[in-house]
Specification:
five-stranded antiparallel sheet, 6 domains, 924 residues, alpha/beta, Helix Hairpins, Beta-Lactamase, elongated
Length: 924
């Protein structure tokens, strides 16, 4: 039926126009209803002056019509109302009028603005005026005077108007249906009247009147019922005798009864739970007696046919007759059972959540206490294990310094190597425990990755033993000279991976390469690869080998040894450094063993450029050292190590005696040159001792002594920290005031080089400037400063080769000065020979070639050697000639070594290692 009858046939248009006019004037907007074809069904209500002015011209009217047609087409696709904006920035509430699933028309409530026109919109309106033949000033004036109506106001009123239109249309459709039924009934009645006209004339008139009256009453009742039924809330009319007179469809749905089962029944006795009846009846009777007025919203449950309860939120009003007598109540109620259940569930959930939070807090407190206890246990474990291991390794070194026969030396060497192996196992176990406990710590200090890699290769050599395996090192040209991070952890992973390759490689080669994989802002990602020609790893075991206590083959544990923790620790450390560790096995070539490649990536912060200082080393002979350690065994080892190089040693067992001892030595004119303190001591820790030393009040005011012609005091005394714990203490030690840091067990060469560096630094710099915080010296920083302080004179006439070689050497951290020819190289070196540690000499150069320049330098060195004014500097030939006999010619000319172009970074390092740093560099 709804598909055939248009909207204008279902609605009284005059009534609709009146309602539309009333709404439009109330809200302050215009309104109109269009048919689906775009034909107006109603007249525009309350058009604004702005829109009327636009429609006053043909072009404006055309633009408006086109815009409304576009919005009408959009409305045909809409299922819900929407606010659209026209070409003149006016808002329009656009809503489809859908009756029984059919789009009957489109309602526009518009010509409003939700806010004042913006400057950009006013410019568009001014431009629009010219396009539709209007005075721009007049149109702008109308625009500025438009009423601002909030969108939610338009939305609410327009939605209500749309609802009324829909209800009227539905009623119209029902009315049309009733009209057709009436016509058919009338036709039948007319035919009956014709047949019995003469005999039933009077009866017919009575029947007609009665029928009309009944129909009128039924129509009014049905209309009211229909309005109630379309509502989404429950309506109940209860007479003063407590019986139900009316209930709508929603109420029947909630209670689960048919309408006829409810009408006439006692509401309180049948539809309320027994526990609340008396209370509700009392309130109802007070209402009927006029003792109280109907109140605000209240809630109470109702009883359904199934015996369940539904919670209803009620609002009641009193019904009176024409004389004002109370006849009953009309109640409208909303079913809020779901909301109540949700509130109860939320309340219950909140209570459970509070309990869970309390439990979690208690568990967190217990976990924190457990972690603290675990951390303390690990620290104590490290100290208790490393202290006797320090004694084992230290006294073994002392034993090897004594007169032993060959068998005894072999036994002692075995003890030392076994002790180092045991220390490695202990370190793995403790590291694994710290990782599992979440206590793995990382330092942030600057270090040279290239130097560290070569150090790892040097440490790996003893593990090869007599096996025919060559250790190779490859450094990428983009590798920075220094980065910021934890060198100890980085080195630990590389040593583990290299040691793993040594263990499973019987012949061939092991190559460690390092390069930059990625850069982001202030960060750089380094990628290390360890390639070997060992037994390889089966593809199905490539992931399993990184699990704790796992080997690629269980039998390898017996054959090769190992805890099965090394690779697992590497994996976890790499993750903590934002990188990864993984392995791959290469395919066999010519039936040879496949080998494997282990990869390791880690992110480091780019380090700032450092000020390079010349490395100054001094002899330790006759230097005076104060050592403090509560462990007598450690003191004995330190005394032996220091006295073996000619140092004078004073040993103390507690920190409280340090400052008095330093004062007495200073007053006696024989001050100490250095101080070595164990960090962890009972009573007064090493941190407290060094803070006392650095305290300005500790120095003896007015007393001066000279050591190496430098003013000295307790404050400026070089102090070295020793630690037997696993923590990375270097940063903490630097903040406390230590000059250097070493971990136990101590390698003697490390200790000597550290002391040489610290005392030499004091000799050059004298008393510390209080305004300058000196960087703490570690085993890494000493070697890096040695490297970066190396000055190279590059003799090269080719500009391209100059730029390339200098860039490569500078990037690696070396200091480079360039000479364009042999003559200039000779002059630069002989004028300041102390500024250069090595010369790279090209052979073919103008004015003076490399051979002649070398001879002149050697001649000058020989002449002045007697006076010790010019040292013999290493000169390395750097040439593109690689024919037989070229090397011999270079050596004959006085050069020390020979490399061919193009030079490689790792080759340069080996040259410097061989001719500049020599054994002291390697052993450190």
């Amino acid at each position: 039926m709804g598909k055939l009858i248009p909207l204008q046939k279902l609605i009284d248009l005059d009534e609709l126009q009146a309602i539309q006019n009333s709404f439009a004037s109330t809200v302050g907007t215009s309104s109109v209803i269009f048919s689906p074809e775009g034909v107006p069904i109603t007249y525009f209500s309350n058009p604004t002056g702005f829109c009327s002015l636009i429609q006053s011209t043909d072009e404006g009217k055309k633009r408006c019509f086109q815009c409304f047609m576009r919005m009408s087409r959009k409305a045909l696709k809409l299922k819900e109302p929407k606010i659209l904006y026209c070409f003149a920035h006016g808002g329009h509430f656009v809503a489809p009028i859908i009756i029984e699933g059919v789009h009957k028309g489109t309602m526009f409530a518009g010509q409003f603005i939700p806010h004042d026109f913006s400057p950009e919109q006013l410019k568009d309106i001014e431009k629009l005026a010219g396009e539709i033949n209007l005075d721009p000033g007049l149109l702008l004036e109308k625009a500025r005077n438009m009423r601002v109506v909030e969108e939610d106001v338009v939305w609410n009123y327009s939605a209500l108007l749309l609802h009324i239109v829909g209800v009227l249309a539905k009623l119209g459709a029902q009315k049309a249906g009733l009209r057709r039924g009436k016509d058919e009934l009338q036709k039948a009645r007319d035919e009956l009247e014709i047949r019995v006209q003469e005999r039933t004339a009077e009866l017919k008139q009575g029947i007609i009147e009665r029928k009309e009256a009944e129909m009128t009453v039924r129509k009014e009742r049905d209309t009211a019922q229909r309005y109630l039924d379309i509502s989404g809330v429950m309506f109940v009319v209860i007479n003063s005798d407590r019986k139900v007179r009316l209930i709508n469809r929603k109420g029947c749905e909630i209670l689960g009864y048919r309408e006829e089962d409810i009408i006439g029944e006692d509401w309180f006795g049948n539809f309320l739970p027994e526990r609340i009846r008396d209370e509700v009846i009392g309130a109802f009777e007070s209402l009927m007696a006029g003792d109280v007025e109907s109140g605000e919203y209240h809630e109470n449950p109702v009883l359904t046919k199934s015996g369940n309860e539904r919670v209803i939120s009620w609002h009641n009003c009193i019904l009176r007759d024409e004389e004002g007598n109370i006849q009953g109540t009309l109640g409208s109620g909303e079913d809020i059972t779901g909301r109540k259940q949700a509130e109860e569930e939320l309340k219950k959930t909140n209570q459970e959540l509070e309990k869970a939070v309390d439990l979690a807090r208690q568990m967190a407190t217990r976990a924190e206490a457990a972690n603290i206890a675990k951390s303390e246990f690990l620290a104590n474990m490290s100290h208790e294990i490393r202290t006797p291991m320090n004694a084992v390794i230290g006294f073994t070194d002392m034993l090897l310094d004594s007169d032993l026969n060959d068998s005894q030396i072999d036994y002692a060497e075995t003890i030392r190597s076994s002790g180092n192996a045991l220390l490695s196992v202990i370190n793995d176990v403790l590291d694994f425990s710290k990782i599992e406990a979440g206590e793995m710590d990382f330092e942030k200090i600057d270090f040279d990755p290239e130097l560290l890699v070569y150090d790892v290769c040097e440490l790996t050599h003893p593990r090869i033993g007599t096996k025919p395996v060559e250790i190779l090192c490859r450094i990428g040209n983009n590798l920075p000279s220094h980065v910021r991070g934890d060198p100890g952890r980085f080195r630990q992973v590389l040593i583990n991976l290299m040691g793993n390759s040594c263990k499973f490689t019987e012949s061939g080669e092991i190559e460690l390469s390092l390069d930059v994989e990625e850069e982001k802002d202030d960060w750089v990602k380094l990628h290390a690869a360890i390639r070997d020609t060992g037994i390889g790893v089966p593809k199905d075991k490539l992931s399993a080998i990184f699990l704790p206590f796992q080997q690629a083959d269980g039998s390898t544990t017996r054959k090769y040894g190992g805890t099965g923790l090394g690779l697992s620790i590497c994996k976890k450390i790499s993750k903590l450094m934002a990188g990864d560790v993984w392995a791959e096995s290469r395919a066999p070539v010519n039936q040879q063993v496949p080998g494997s490649i282990f990869h390791f990536t880690a992110w480091f912060k780019k380090a700032e450029d450092k000020k390079v200082r010349r490395f100054t080393s001094v002899s330790l002979s006759n230097k005076k050292a104060l050592i403090i350690d509560d462990n007598q065994t450690n003191l004995d080892i330190l005394i032996h190590l220091l006295e073996s190089v000619g140092m004078r040693v004073v040993a103390l067992g507690n920190g409280a005696d340090v400052v008095p001892t330093l004062r007495n030595a200073l007053e006696s004119g024989d001050p100490f040159d250095s101080c070595i303190i164990d960090i962890h001591m009972p009573g007064m820790s090493g941190y407290e001792v060094v803070k006392q030393i650095r305290n300005p009040q500790t120095s003896i005011q007015g007393f001066q002594s000279t050591i190496n012609n430098q003013q000295s005091s307790i404050q400026s005394l070089p102090v070295l920290a020793l630690s037997s714990l696993m923590e990375r203490d270097a940063k903490k030690c630097g903040e406390a005031g230590f000059d250097g840091f070493l971990s136990k067990p101590i390698r003697r060469k490390k200790l000597y080089k550290m002391l040489e560096r610290m005392i030499g630094k004091r000799k050059v710099e004298g008393k510390k400037d209080k305004a300058i915080k000196e960087k703490i010296i570690t085993q890494y920083s000493v070697r890096e400063e040695m490297k970066r302080s190396a000055r190279i004179l590059l003799a090269e006439d080719n500009p391209v080769n100059q730029k390339l070689t200098k860039m490569m050497l500078t990037k690696a951290g070396y200091q480079v000065e360039v000479a364009d020819n042999g003559k200039e190289a000779f002059e630069k070196y002989t004028s300041s020979p102390e500024n250069f540690d090595l010369i790279f000499m090209d052979i073919q150069m103008p004015e003076m070639d490399g051979f002649a320049a070398t001879r002149e330098i050697r001649k000058q060195s020989t002449i002045n050697n007697h006076q010790s004014s010019i040292k013999r500097v290493p000169i390395v030939a750097m040439t593109a000639h690689s024919m037989k006999g070229d090397r011999e010619k270079c050596i004959e000319a006085g050069m020390d070594d020979y490399i061919t172009k193009p030079i490689k970074r790792e080759l340069v390092f080996k040259i410097l290692e061989k001719w500049v740093f020599r054994k002291g560099f390697n052993e450190f």
